[in-house]
Specification:
There is one protein chain. By secondary structure, the chain is an all-alpha fold. Helices cover 78% and strands 0% of the residues. The chain contains eleven helices and no strands. It has helices at 4-22, 33-51, 53-57, 59-68, 74-91, 96-102, 106-116, 121-170, 178-230, 234-242, 247-255. Helix 2 runs parallel beside helix 9. The longest helix is centred in the C-terminal third of the chain and has 53 residues, at 178-230. The radius of gyration is 27 Å and the shape is elongated.
């Protein structure tokens, strides 16, 4: 779990209210039911009209994913792949059938089963590439729900402001009520813009980032699976897969002894 999402959202909200306090404002003035209902329910409604009911029903799950989702552990995946490459060179590809059943990652397990079944390497690559492409499409659809909301919310807030100003103009004969009425009218715009930039857009971007990281990890796995199928030397497999690591990950990976901790490269010497 990456705490950055929660911390970032909290910092953004705190910054808004800190600025409000510094200007001598009252947060209670922003808690008005009608703008809240208009912006929240209105945004939900137009998102439902845009993406369908099934997409909107996934919102709670996507919120949890954004807050608790973590990128795949690529160094561990490299260790697993190198260990399998070593075993495949010693015992043959059929020896990986048991490994495929014990792998937690369904994608890696699927790739290994294709290799064990003797599937042509080009076909293995095509199948796994289609799997990654399909996954990216699903993730894009999920993130687009929040992207749509970030576009609708400010516009609906403006609608609320216009409605409020119309109400103000209808009551010009009562000057004492003009100030509070105008203030309430602009709160709808504030809520729309704030929810878009402090909520919907950050969640959409986080979901996209998680999708990119998972796609990169799966691309790395594909390279490892094809290298195992080709019978590449485990050390070559490790060096090839290390190119997918970020500099910090690569340094930590090498400090931990690389794939040796997985029992792969140094298995014969142990």
């Amino acid at each position: 779990m990456d705490p950055g999402t929660i911390i970032g959202l909290v910092l953004g909200i705190v910054a808004v209210f800190a600025a409000l306090f510094m200007e001598g404002g009252n947060p209670a003035a922003f808690i008005i039911p009608s703008p809240i209902v208009l912006v929240v329910i209105g945004t939900l409604g137009v998102c439902m009209a845009s993406t369908g009911l099934s997409a909107v029903l996934r919102i709670p799950t996507l919120w949890i994913k954004a807050f608790t989702g973590a990128p795949p552990n690529r160094p561990d995946a490299i260790k697993t792949l190198v260990r399998m490459a070593e075993r495949a060179r010693r015992e043959g590809l059929l020896a990986l059938e048991e490994e495929a059943q014990g792998v937690d990652d369904p994608f890696l397990s699927k790739g290994l089963r294709l290799v064990v079944d003797g599937t042509d390497p080009e076909l293995v690559k095509d199948i796994l590439d289609l799997d990654v492409e399909s996954m990216a499409g699903r993730h894009h659809e999920n993130a687009s729900l929040f992207t749509h909301a970030s576009g609708f919310a400010p516009t609906i807030g403006i609608i609320g402001t216009v409605m409020g100003l119309v109400h103000v103009l209808e009551n010009l004969s009562n000057p004492a009520s003009l100030g509070p009425a105008i203030s309430a009218a602009f709160i709808a715009t504030f809520l729309g813009v704030a929810s878009a930039n402090l909520c919907y857009l950050p969640i959409a971007n986080k979901l996209k980032e998680l999708s990119t990281q998972e796609a990169d990890a799966r691309t790395m796995m594909i390279e490892g699976i094809l290298s195992i199928q080709a019978g590449d030397n485990p050390r070559i497999v490790e060096e090839k897969l290390k190119t997918f690591l970020e500099p910090g990950e690569r340094k930590e990976f090498e400090e931990e002894g690389g794939a040796r901790d997985a029992g792969g490269l140094d298995a014969k010497a142990a």
